[in-house]
Design a protein that fits this description.
Helix content: 25-40%
Distance between the termini: 36 Å
Strand order of the largest sheet: 1-2-3
Oligomer: single chain
Largest sheet: 3 strands, parallel
Strand content: 15-25%
């Protein structure tokens, strides 16, 4: 697919929240748009290896289940992103090899970047 416009979104909701109006306008003019979410992956970590920020975010997502995994959180955020891109008319591309920001660091050494 050839795109007239490509947006680089660091995290799942960044493009929709910051550029949603432009994306919608472009797709309504039949201009193909792609949004590439860069940090879209979920690590395979036990809950004990979560940063304090990640633990707080996980508490916010207990509506998914009482003890959501990083995969649960990222899947829910991705689904929300996909719905936003569908509404805006843009294609969504997610780079899962890069972890979402709250999971970045060196968990084995209890070092977290956020």
């Amino acid at each position: 697919m050839k795109y007239n416009h490509i947006y680089l979104s660091p995290h799942y909701d960044d493009a929709a929240l910051s550029c949603g109006g432009s994306i919608h306008k472009q797709t309504k003019q039949q201009e193909p748009v792609a949004v590439i979410t860069i940090f879209a992956g979920a690590p395979d970590l036990p809950n004990a290896a979560l940063s304090k920020l990640a633990q707080a975010v996980h508490k916010e997502f207990t509506f998914l289940n009482p003890n959501p995994s990083p995969q649960d959180i990222v899947a829910a955020r991705r689904q929300e992103n996909e719905q936003a891109m569908l509404f805006l008319g843009a294609d969504s591309i997610c780079l899962e090899q890069f972890h979402d920001s709250i999971y970045r660091g060196i968990p084995g050494q209890n070092i977290f970047f956020y």
